[in-house]
Amino acid sequence: MAKNFPIQQKDIERLENATVQLFNKSFWQLYHQQARRFIYLVEDGERHKQEIGQLTATKQIYSEIKLLMDNKGNIIGKRMDRSSLLLSTNGNRLKQAPRPKKYELSEHERSLASIEGQEYKDWLQEMKLYCHEHL
């Protein structure tokens, strides 16, 4: 997963059904380029979302976003303070960085490594049996 990549305003505007928490502790539901504030109401022990207020442009609240959550409630972005960048977290599926390959093995090298690994495994089993019988 991509971790600690900056999440820009254009990335947030792509999201269809995400939730953000601002630094003033209010929650907002994102609808592409617009957002609406909501509160949680508890009725009969169940929590429900109640939207309040007018639709607002996402760009107006972007600088105040503290937490960015997906539709399941997983935190996918976090900002430490108002002056820092909004960075992705471990569970982020918003941006995925390609994992660099450390090295490439040819087919011949792969088969040699496999044979060497099997020989080492057989040797360990022999040593285990020897120690079990003689000690």
Q: Shape, please?
A: elongated
> In terms of per-residue confidence, which ranges show pLDDT below 50 for 5 or more consecutive residues?
none
Strand content: 25-35%
Structural class: alpha+beta
Order of strands across the main sheet: 4-3-2-1-5-6-7
Q: Give the fraction of residues assigned to helices.
A: 25-40%
Overall pLDDT, averaged?
85
Terminal residue distance: 48 Å
Sketch the topology as an H/E string, one letter per element. Answer: HEEEEHEEEH
Let me know the largest β-sheet. Answer: 7 strands, antiparallel
How many helix segments?
Answer: 3
Describe how the helices and strands are arranged.
Layout: H1 9-14, E1 18-22, E2 27-31, E3 34-43, E4 46-57, H2 58-61, E5 65-69, E6 75-78, E7 87-88, H3 107-134
Antiparallel strand pairs: 1-2, 1-5, 2-3, 3-4, 5-6, 6-7
Characterization of this structure:
This protein has 3 helices and 7 strands; from the N terminus they run αββββαβββα. The protein folds into 2 domains: about 10-90, no CATH class; about 100-135. The mean pLDDT is about 85. It has helices at about 10-15, 60, 105-135, and strands spanning about 20, 25-30, 35-45, 45-55, 65-70, 75-80, 85-90. The relative contact order is 0.17. The two termini are about 50 Å apart. It has a 7-stranded antiparallel sheet. With about 140 residues, it is of the alpha+beta class.
